Amino acid sequence: MDAWSSALSVDEFAAIRSAGFEPVGQVMGTAVYRTSVLSQFVDCGYRPSLFGTGAAQTVTTADGDNGYRGYVRGRTEMRRLAMDRMAQECRALGACGVVATRLTMGPLGEAGNVQEYRAIGTAVTARGVTAPEHPFLSHLTGQEFAQLFAAGWIPVDLVLGIAVGIRHDDWATRQMRGMFGAVQEVGGWTELLSRTRAVARANFHHDAARRGGDGLLVSRVNVRVWDRECRRGNEQSDHGVEAMFLGTSIAAFHPTGAPSAPAPLTIMPLDRASGPGTARSTHVVT
Amino acid sequence: MSSPDSGQDPAVALPEDAVKRLAQLRPGNPGAIFTSDLSVNEFLLVREAGFRPLGLVLGSSIYHVGIQVGRWGKNQELDQLSGAMYHARELAMSRMEAEAASLGADGVVAVRLEVEFREFGTDIAEFIAIGTAVKAEDDGNWKDNRGRPFSSDLSGQDFWTLIRAGYAPLGLVMGTCVYHIAHRKMGSVLGSIGQNTEIPEFTQALYDARELAMGRMQAEAQSLAAEGIVGVDLKQLHHMWGGHTMEFFAVGTAVRPLRADHVIDRPQMVLSLNG
What pTM was computed for the model? Predict the structure, then answer.
């Protein structure tokens, strides 16, 4: 048997072994893509009127093409591609699935709009088990994987949901800015953020439904906000929001024999390294 | 060490069962999959405590915080700002609770109530509440005295321990006070040069402000008919106001007893081998 390699820590390795799995090798998938958003096609939802200040509303990628639809689709597809390539490597090793996946995304080289998507994880397998057609993928650490597994849950897939929303800074929004503006809720931006996040969450659910499963554990929720010049050339600005949800879907299975996960044991650590009590006392000393 | 697949207790989960389940998976209905932002540990403990996660719920409010003019040399609460800071959080919480109620939840656990300054401008803050809506496996009444789902900012671990000890969370309670601490008068600054001495104006201001925030939190707990408040966090936030104006924010989980005795298992002592 060839030697395997893995980036697992010793604790993770032991945890995975305790669940009946063994690491097979490090697997990776990557995809490089170029994003481009053509500014003149961005729809900020502003509709000027002949009299008065005009109307503004949030336009998300679910409402129609606000100019970012291609961008969202590109990001979703590239991520899927990187993950499929990782799954392929996993299948080639005859493994059951991948744990401790780290997903990174960053600009490649000097060009700001070329991004690399990279997924790196450790493929694991169990003795005497035929590898499934679709290996499971997860961001869980080895310990988390072992805990879930002992309780009768298996990870299914890495899941992602993205959405972009754009909103014109209308008259009512502009009035509230500045040091001496009234202390109150900014309705327009609240709508922008809430709607965009809701759409990203819905996309997240849909992505999970592709493979199926019973639950979805969120690992990260990111929100990025930027402002841009309104393309209408009225010297006003728009705000854009990109919301992203990332997580692992899981499925329940029934262990042969009695379905009994070990009951949690209450413990009291006797070392002084951590714990709320010690944290409090060190706080007092400093 | 025994090999992983020999001599195991039959009740223990086996890789075969799990992999078999993977093969049976079919594309599902997005609504049938629950979401939660609990960690794996927290998720398993919430399940163990007898609750089923329903979905990740969130509420948000973008608020223009601004300033309120106070007297330079006077200790005083900036009541407009106190009201705003409370109102913004209440909006976020109530939107989150509305999402939970529409899922038919009994409560929301592991709520994170945060203030974030994003790229909207220095005086614009997002107040956001995120939690996991849960439903109890039993038919007990977990709602608060107004028939609303309970909420709690306790971690999954704390939540499990609380239920085990015979308490139920009632609601996340909070109190806030934005206070302007007086600048010292020239005379008192000069008078104390070179001395190690207490500055009574400052001491008094901090006492008053904390007392106001804590008192408001306690009043909320009383209106829920709670027995007490656990996990209180008293934060001191400067936001964007500079050194002399700060927000004192008290937040905790109001609890009610589930039964008369509150005994938990004697914890096992553990001496860890690392560190």
Answer: 0.86
